[in-house]
């Protein structure tokens, strides 16, 4: 989110005129790019059309649009500059003067809604500081937010685009360098609380269907200066205050925690799905929160792509998905667009099995590579990922409709369906009874796990 000066050889006057043209409410930010059509017979070179995503097509009794609930993230797509620790910004957008002005924030937002509409995506998501600049103090920051929330409300109404979720950025400002809710200084925790208070208010105003907490700095770099138990107790206290305020103001969206194992801190407390579930149960918060799973975070935790989606769903806590992917060979959070059909099939199988992801969605927490510098690349990236998930949906629907894999997995556990197995599942069996069973039945027969058989079956569908 660093600011930058556009690389241009033109004079200051030319530049002002360049940006001024985008201030008009009817300005066009992506000229020459039409609403993206559905063209199922398109060839390989046609990457500006949907080949599979056909929003109204019915799959398993529900429209594709409804199963997939796509959302565009504002931070990467409209605040990302392509800067990395080794290089300057590469993604210079013609409407963005790189300043922290309200006028620039408005231009970015108008460009955003044109982009969502041309893609035909019905949801967006943002951090408070993505949409409005931080002011000199809390009141000023809140005033800036109000200006941009007014515009967001107007543009949501005009385009029909809705807010999947809002979140607060409690990690970029230097005050949060030692954490927000887990900061050893209560003054910083208080600042975070004040920010989330406002965040919940604007989420309510904009009709957000969820509210996300990603603990960007909630973790540690060294245990030598850290009291882990106190920090986790503080984090739980913070969440309890958020629940109380949500109820007080009548915000009905789902609260979501987004697990991540590391980066920016060496160890993040919300390590993975199972860690967050244990945290929620430990502090009695599991009825108030669900999880927002980001597969790039899952693979950073050393799991396979669909692991956290599967684990969260297994406990009825899969609330939403930040549908991106990483490069496990690199080992950091690359936030790439998901293009692998096997991965999207695995995720959509879980979503179908749990009867949908609503009120969550598939939010593209993804950024184009810093080398993908054209405006068209923003579209191509999202279209490719939307088609990849649409194909995943169709593959998963076929897998479930045919039921071959489901039936074989069920058979694998059939010894628990009756007799001693059913007694174990019901919690009725005892060690003495199980010993007696073994003495009577002897050595268990060895049964193949048949992993390769399952892998071959998936290849049949994908
Ligand atoms: C960071 C990340 C965030 C959250 C929202 O890795 O995924 O963008 O999704 O704060
Ligand atoms: Co995310």
Overall spatial form: globular
Count of helix runs: 17
The residue ranges in which pLDDT falls below 50 over 5 or more consecutive positions are: 1-9
> How is the main sheet built?
8 strands, parallel, barrel
What would you report as the Rg, rounded to the nearest angstrom?
24 Å
What class do helices, strands and sheet pairing give?
alpha/beta
- Count of extended strands: 12
Give a list of the ligands.
Answer: D-xylulose, cobalt (II) ion
- Spatial ordering of strands, largest sheet: 3-4-5-6-8-10-11-12
- What distance lies between the first and last C-alpha atoms, to the nearest angstrom? 38 Å
Give the rounded overall mean pLDDT. 96
Instruction: Estimate percent helicity.
Output: 40-55%
Order of helices and strands: HEEHEHHEHHEHEEHEEHEHHEHEHHHHH
What does this structure look like?
One of its GO terms (molecular function) is xylose isomerase activity. Belongs to the xylose isomerase family. Keywords: Carbohydrate metabolism, Isomerase, Metal-binding, Xylose metabolism. InterPro entries: Xyl_isomerase-like_sf (IPR036237), Xylose_isom_bac (IPR013452), Xylose_isomerase (IPR001998). With 462 residues, the chain is of the alpha/beta class. Helix content is 45%, strand content 10%. Strands 3-4-5-6-8-10-11-12 form an 8-stranded parallel barrel, surrounded by 4 helices. Helix 4 runs parallel beside helix 6 and helix 7 runs parallel beside helix 8. The protein binds D-xylulose and cobalt (II) ion. D-xylulose binds next to loops. D-xylulose (XUL) binds next to loops.
